[in-house]
Structure formats: C-alpha cells, structure tokens
Design a protein that fits this description.
Distance between the termini: 22 Å
Shape: globular
Structural class: alpha+beta
Number of domains: 1
CATH superfamily: Endonuclease/exonuclease/phosphatase
C-alpha cells in the first residue's frame, strides 16, 4: 500500500484544525469537477484559441479539472506555449502536468517538447504522481505496447478531505487491446491508494460505456451517467459518441452531471457535481 508523504499528513492535520468542529464531525463537502480533452486549444473552427479554452473552464465553475491533449513547448500548432501553466495562470488555479512524451527541443537551448495530461485545482495539491501505464507510442515508427508515463494523479485537499484525482487519456485505436491493458494498469494503480480513499477518475477513454474493455472499471468505479444522462461528448460540433468520463469511488456521490456545449475543442467537456462524505 502506498503511504501518503509526510507533507500531506502535516497539511491534512493543519487543515483539519482549521475546519470548524461541526464540519469536521459530520456533514458533506461539495466538489465540482470537469473533464476536458482540450485538443491543444484548437476548436471546431480549426483555430488555436487557448483563451477560449480557459473561458470554457471558467464558465463551468469547476473546482478541479482533468485535462487531456495538453501541449508544453510542443509544436508550432500551439505556438510552443506551456499550455498547462498558461491555463493555470489565466484561471488562477494550481496545476500538475504529466507528460506522456518528453522530447528534445527542435532548436538548441529551447525547452524540452512535452505533450500529455494535466490537473487544475482551486484547492491545494499536496501530492502528485505521473504514473506509467501501457501505451502504443505515436512517436515511434514501429511501436509495441510498453509502459510509458502520462497517467496523472493529484491528491487535492478539499476542506480537510484528501481526494485522489486522476486524469487519463486512453488509446484511440479501433483495436481495444491496448485499452484493455490500460484499464488493468489503471485499476492496479488506483488500488495502491489507502483503503477508503476518495477517488475521482477523469478522462478521455476513447470508448463508449458498453465497450468490453471498460467493463472492469465499472466493478470498482461509478459512472457519473448513472445519476443523470447528459448525452454524447464527441465530436463537439455534432456529438454522437460518449467517450469522455467522470467516474468516482463508492464514497464519492454524484449529484448530477452535464455535457458543456462548447466549440473550444473537438470534444465537449463534462462537468459533475460531487459530494464527499466525511
């Protein structure tokens, strides 16, 4: 079992002292989360507009956000910007970026080129990990399934309650084999959290809910659509498939969820209102 670092334990203790006794002894805590494949800030009009991405996130009033397809000094398509830090700055949120790819720069002296997933939070991030899961690289000419980074975990402290928030982007190919391996890796990693940990898995799963490769997830996690049926998420201009998810452990209750009508990406984001039980 993975132990939380001493820093987290200390911050948790201090946070609990700051919470009124009536709140610490009972009741519940609200948390709004958003999952958003931002398509590197490129919208349905094929235009790069990271401010539009930020506006979509801001308008959702989410406390915690899982992002996919984030560029950090990656390419001209995103003006070689650090999109993770730029979004955090525009939204006044904390950020943890977990690269899937980390490559040398195109020109000497420039920052390394990175692409991956991220977690934004209005609450303190007291611990973070970039976990490795099975991937089929898009950067190799003859890729084979192999462990690679890019599965983000951030422990977020919400009014004294630690919440393990994960952001993931599963394989896009029609063959489900790699996604099957990724789901198994995901459940193995999440099982390393302490018993009873509050967990929220956000991401682009690149498969619809009834896909056989996702079935193991539903034995451990709840799909936000079990509370409501917000509808499909992809493609953004005429959604016909649901491949973007908010999922939670049994001790995190989903009050409702909705798909956000946005043209800021080729995916529509999903926002969910959660309740954390004390």
């Amino acid at each position: 079992m993975r132990r939380l670092p001493l820093l987290l334990a200390a911050l948790l203790a201090l946070s609990l002292l700051a919470v009124p006794a009536s709140a610490a002894s009972g009741g519940a805590v609200a948390l709004r989360v958003l999952t958003f494949n931002i398509h590197t800030g490129i919208g349905t009009d094929a235009a790069l507009d990271l401010a539009r991405t930020a506006d979509t996130i801001r308008d959702s009033r989410a406390d915690v956000v899982g992002l996919q397809e984030v560029d950090v000094h990656w390419d001209a398509r995103s003006e070689f910007r650090d999109q993770a830090r730029d979004l955090a700055r525009m939204l006044h949120m904390r950020v943890f970026f977990a690269p899937i790819y980390d490559l040398p720069p195109l020109t000497e002296g420039a920052p390394r080129r990175q692409y991956g997933v991220a977690i934004l939070s209005r609450h303190p991030i007291v611990h973070a990990d970039n976990h490795w899961i099975t991937r089929l690289s898009t950067q190799d000419e003859n890729p084979v399934p192999a462990p690679a980074p890019g599965f983000a975990e951030a422990v977020v402290l919400v009014r004294g309650l630690p919440v393990h928030v994960y952001s993931t982007h599963l394989d896009f190919r029609a063959d489900p084999t790699v996604r099957e391996l990724q789901v198994a890796d995901t459940l193995r990693i999440m099982a390393e959290d302490r018993p009873g940990a509050r967990q929220v898995l956000l991401g682009d799963f690149n498969a619809e809910p009834a896909a056989p490769e996702l079935a193991p997830l539903w034995t451990r996690l709840s799909d936000a659509w079990s509370a409501t049926d917000p509808g499909p998420t992809y493609p953004a201009d005429a959604p016909s498939k649901r491949i973007d998810y908010v999922t939670t452990s049994p001790n995190v209750v989903v009050k409702n969820a909705r798909v956000v009508d946005s043209s800021a990406s080729d995916h529509r984001p999903v926002v969910a209102n959660l309740v954390l039980r004390r």
